[in-house]
Amino acid sequence: IxxxxxxxxxxxxxxxxxxxxxxxxxxxxxRSNVGKSSIINAFTxxxxxxxxxxxxxxxxxxxxxxVLFTQEDKTFNVQFVDLPGFGxxxxxxxxxxxxxxxxxxxxxxxxxxRVFVHLIDSRHPFLESDHDVHAYLxxxxxxxxxxxxxxxxxxxxxxxxxxxxxxxxxxxxLVSSSNKKGIDKALHAIFxxxxx
Length: 196
Ligand code: GTP
Ligand code: MG
Description:
By secondary structure, the chain is of the alpha/beta class. It is built from five helices and seven strands, in the order E-E-H-E-E-H-E-H-E-H-E-H.
């Protein structure tokens, strides 16, 4: 499979502003700064498609991207959804609470979501907050939804760190959006969950 094309569709601040239900969605979830926007760019091979930044709290809206996959002579249309991060955001508490509320409503009410990609910083693979997010997703998913864990920023790891992760998660997908290692494999895993 290949990504043939990808383009920005719209930004929404709440569930009411989202695109109509229909096209299968892949929602990228994880802590602020884990690399959600960057991995969307790596998957689609488009550098500035999703806006990334070294400052946590960059993505503040629910951003929809249309992605066209091709496999042999078939085309598959999917939406990738870049979300604000869980946790840190240098804004007022009330604003932060409103984002989190909108984010939670999208995650819990959006019918079109087929895959939740839970991104975890591979340098901190066992954080309680990620454990909580995973448990939360497991509890809410419907039978037609799946969760895929992906460990980001693998270029920062030593081989011994990789071994620790592999010991706990033998099938762990370790990915670097910087050097593109693991990107193809992770993209195939998402595609399999959607259409396999
Ligand atoms: P928020 O939108 O704030 O929630 O962050 P995000 O999860 O979208 O993270 P983003 O993609 O903006 O990346 C955050 C920072 O990590 C940026 O400085 C990226 O360049 C960097 N980054 C992302 N992926 C990688 C990676 O694979 N390796 C390395 N070394 N840095 C990365
Ligand atoms: Mg982002």
